[in-house]
Amino acid sequence: RIHLAALAIREETIGTDHFHTSHTYHNLAVVYRGMEQWPEAEQFYREALRVKQIHHGEGSAETGRTLSQLGHAIGMQGRFEEASRLHDAAVATTRGLDAETGSLVAPMLVRRGDVLRAEGRLTDAETSIRRGIRLWQRSVGTPTPLVPRWLLRLSEVVGTQGRQEEATQLVAESRALCDGLPLERQRDRCISAAEAAL
Prior knowledge:
Elements: H1 2-13, H2 19-34, H3 38-56, H4 61-75, H5 80-94, H6 102-118, H7 122-139, H8 146-160, H9 164-178, H10 184-197
Helix pairs in contact: 1-2, 2-3, 3-4, 4-5, 4-6, 5-6, 6-7, 7-8, 8-9, 9-10
């Protein structure tokens, strides 16, 4: 409700096409994504994308990130072909940007893997998730909860393909990375997720 009130204020005071309004659209999409209300998330991601394209153009990291998140929301509604196109566009949008965008592109690749997995394209899903993990590790390098979580996703894809031993190794790798997380709360949640996957 707070985000909806903020949106009404922003739209009234600075307009629907103002850059700051795109942040509110994006935040609302994230709220709806967290509640798994995918049509509403899609609606606000589309609005955020529209405004970001006005201010940043097609070839920006901001536009690429929103394309990817819109693709995820659409994929969660079972519209896999459209979701795949959006994920491909998101990755293409950020290709050629500076190396710092690795932290932006890596989650896009993992989200694309999620859509491919839901579509039943397990080999492609595995490739996309692996690329995302490698890119994150090369560009960011510092321990975060993302890589252990992504390794668990990868273990599920690999296990679904009948490669149980490799899936178990990925879970163990995820668990080992959890130990290196700097915050105790992150570490504990990470370890719990890894142990639940065993």
